[in-house]
Amino acid sequence: MNMDSIDLFDPDIQENWFPAYKTLLEEAPVYRIPGSTTFVITKYEDILTIVSDPKTFSNEPEKYGGEPLIVHPEARQYYIDHGLGKETGRTRWPLLGMDPPDHGKYRKLIDRHLMDRQVLRRTQPFIEETITELIDEFEASGSIEFVKEFAIPLPVKIITAMIGFPLEDIPQLKIWSTTWTLPFARGLSLAQEMEVARQGVDFQNYIRDIANERRKRPKDDVITHLVQAKFDEKRPLTDHEIASIVDNMYIGGNETTTFTLTSGMWLMLKDPSIYQALKKDKSKIQNFTNEVLRLESPTQGLYRTAVIDTEIRGTPIPKGSTIHIRFGAANRDEEVFSCPEKLDLNRANCSRHLAFSRGEHGCPGSSLARMELNIAYEHLIKRLSGLQLTPKQNDFTHHPGFILRGLKELYLSFEPRSGKV
Predict the structure, then answer these.
(1) What's the pTM?
(2) Between the CA of residue 377 and those of 24, 283, 372, 417, what are the distances in Å?
(3) Sign of the alpha-carbon torsion through 356, 152, 273, 395
(4) What domains, with CATH codes, occur in the chain?
(5) Residue 332 in contact with residue 341, Cβ under 8 Å?
């Protein structure tokens, strides 16, 4: 692919990013999207530098003249008029995306639920129980549509229970979750942004109502912890703060794990030697998970804003420019990963991928996601014999979009089996 043919908003390129990434890595590692002030960064080391330097590259675009996620004034005003931020004039308020030092103060409130080893060990039996129940439902059928029957319900049920939402609300929660992510694709119409705003306000109010319930009747969940917590150990969190933390956690805790689960089964089964190697040696599953995250990063990229005039690889970056850090490309940088397009179960540095980013804003749910993925792959391989991609039923197309990457559906076949293990 040559530079003239690269259009990162072309659906055909979005279906298969990787030829474009190869060209950008080799010819334009700092690529300015034509007609914009957005610079796409693809080299691994450059991205590490950016995510490690919040004083130069901010995660709060509106503070420094960058483009906000909600662009249309009418949609922004709807958030202010109807949402929990009306007293402060705030729209969406991504507290877990703030710059230091406040980011660390908010992040501290949730890290113990998502990263603490003891908490994760206590969560593991629930993950295994949920996986077992899901497989029990389809094990005798001999075939499934994997996204709908496994990859969506597993992470959704786990994060729903951990946060403290009723499991029966999952269908509505999934609608809110999907809608919440839409602005990251950029270029939404006014009608689309108004729908995002309406759904976002409804989600905020729902979280507020659950928080009020937990104040009366505490439980062992994230929302109870947040209503009892104090910001910087000085004051209780407002309802808007609680809602902002929780909606961010909920979306991060299910969408990307669904995509990775599905990508992993696709990569495993389109190359039978990978499947056979994992069946023979389960200890390779952790490396396999890391290679899936590297090759098919569910979040292909995120944004920063230049706080000052700066430069990257000699390219001037004016203050206020949008910096798009492209994790999906960096994870195929041959200066870091040899034979980067190959899934290598023995790759020594496979855990160095940037699928969860790094630095101040590294994904707080990365440990939980890895646990879910590793356990899921192990159980699926163990319980479903003769796994294969169902012939003539898959077209392997992905959801369109600039940020997230995931297959729309994946049909699998296996040997039908009755009874529970």
Answers:
(1) 0.92
(2) 33, 11, 9, 18
(3) negative
(4) 72-97+168-253 (1.10.630.10)
(5) yes
